[in-house]
Design a protein that fits this description.
The complex is a heterodimer of chains A (197) and B (337).
Chain A (H helix, E strand, L loop, with lengths): L1 H16 L4 H18 L5 H86 L3 H51 L13
Helix pairs in contact in A: 2-3
Chain B lengths: L2 H7 L3 E6 L5 E6 L3 E6 H5 L1 H5 L7 E5 L5 E7 L2 E6 L3 E5 H6 L8 E3 L11 E7 L4 E6 L3 E6 L4 E7 L5 E6 L7 E5 L4 E4 L9 E3 L9 E6 L5 E6 L4 E4 L4 E5 L8 E7 L2 E6 L3 E5 L5 E6 L5 E6 L9 E5 L3 E5 L7 E4 L3 H7 L1
Antiparallel strand pairs in B: 1-2, 2-3, 3-4, 5-6, 6-7, 7-8, 9-10, 10-11, 11-12, 13-14, 14-15, 15-16, 17-18, 18-19, 19-20, 21-22, 22-23, 23-24, 25-26, 26-27, 27-28
The chains are: A mainly alpha (197), B mainly beta (337).
Amino acid sequence: MAGPLEEEVIRKRLLVEGDGGSDDRRIMSLVKTFIRWCGATQLSQEEREATYQKMLFTLAQCEFSFKKTEAVMEMNKREMDRYEQLYRDIETSIRDTQQRIASYRDELKRSKVIQRHRQEYDALAKVIQQHPERQQTERRMGRSEARLARLMETRALLEGQLGQRRRQFHLLFHSLHQLQACLSSPGPEGDVAMDTS
Amino acid sequence: MDTAALEKYFNIVFDQEYSPSGKHLATCDVYGQITVFSIAAALSVSSVIDPKTKNKALSFTGHRGPAYSLQTVDSLLVSGGSEDIRVWNWDQLTCSEDVEEPVTILQPPVVRKGNPDSNGLAYDKQNTTLYSACGDGCVHAWDLTTGKLKASYSGHTSYVHCVCCKNSESSQFISGGEDGCVCIWDPSTANHPVHTLRPMKGKGEWIGCVAVDESGEWMVCGGSSAPCMYHLGSFSKTTTFPVPQGMVTQGAIFAGENVVTVGSNQSIHHWTVNGSLVAAVPSDQTHAFSVAVNNRSPQYKVLTVTGDSANVSVSVNFGYKAFSLTVPGPSQRHSNN
């Protein structure tokens, strides 16, 4: 419970004392010397001059000290401003990088799909390569069709010839039967003019 | 032998799933336990001060046998086990101290061959259908509002390991199985898939995981041979990821622009879509079974890997592992209660 209070007290004392308290002491001694100097009537002219110079010197020292502190404060303020600027810059660059990461991730997904498609294409292409070309197959088909047509023609021809032979044999047998009938039937009626058409 | 001590070293965490808010992670393991961790707590500042808060988890026995897969459906968590599929409520899992009863139990139909275990789960939001990849060679479609089996899609000749939905616009789904086929199904035709892909040549090859990217055009599938990428529009295989010889891939996802695969060589591989390796990050697990990225919450976006260890590795930057969460063994849990 006493802890935080103590801390506050210590902090306040440090702030007040600043550079270790020498400023305070200097001001106190200056004030004392001034009062002594005002009230000193029995000192000689040189001693009074000397004390006056000493007081001016002490005054200058005090001025110097507080100017130094002012400069340090200014420096600290500028440092802080710089750091804030740096912080903002880093934040923007983080956001940019995150956006870029997201876009790259999308691109990666698309590229993976494209790669997969290319591989599938490659696999199918290998299979297709194994089959002969379309033109070659078409030529072979044309040749086979021509052969087929020729063979059909030959067959028609042969069938025609076969039909004719069949008819000729039919005629021959008909004539033979007629001759047989002629020869087997006796008598003058048998001498009928043979049908020799 | 002291089983409790052994259990610390032996656990296989098959699958993991994030809560709808993205703040919690649920894992299911070979003991049938479901453990819920809080990612938000693990990533918070208090977990740096007190590391024990990281591992604070709610753990309960969800299934009698092992639990193979998890899927978050709106506010529910669906877990697929070796006998049935159980549905839990996320609020129950995150708020209460212990969980006794599931909200519903879905029973796969009795089968002639194979086991009714649900190896993989996927949810189609548009049709509110849950698809389960079943050990009997079929993909079952469940209607979660009624709890009934809607349809069974049979086309695989052996058990189905994994299923995933194409994307939010299409109602098609894709399944991968032990027979090495990746089948693309349309919900309307139950007898045969719309398209069958055979990414691996040779006998005995199997598919362990399928994943489709967000656009629905690209699919990555992995299994006994190197994982590969398909362009679904043309059903053409575009790339094969060059993993080390003999490595088995059990988990694959699309994470952003890369593909992440995990498997049997103790590392997490990051690939570009055209096949070049971006990173190979060492992981805790010798054989990893699943990898997931928390896309539900941009704040807690982590990559987690689970596998044949009681630890779940969590990475915040996908380039390296940040920390591990430990799944408690069953006897450890009972001794703590």
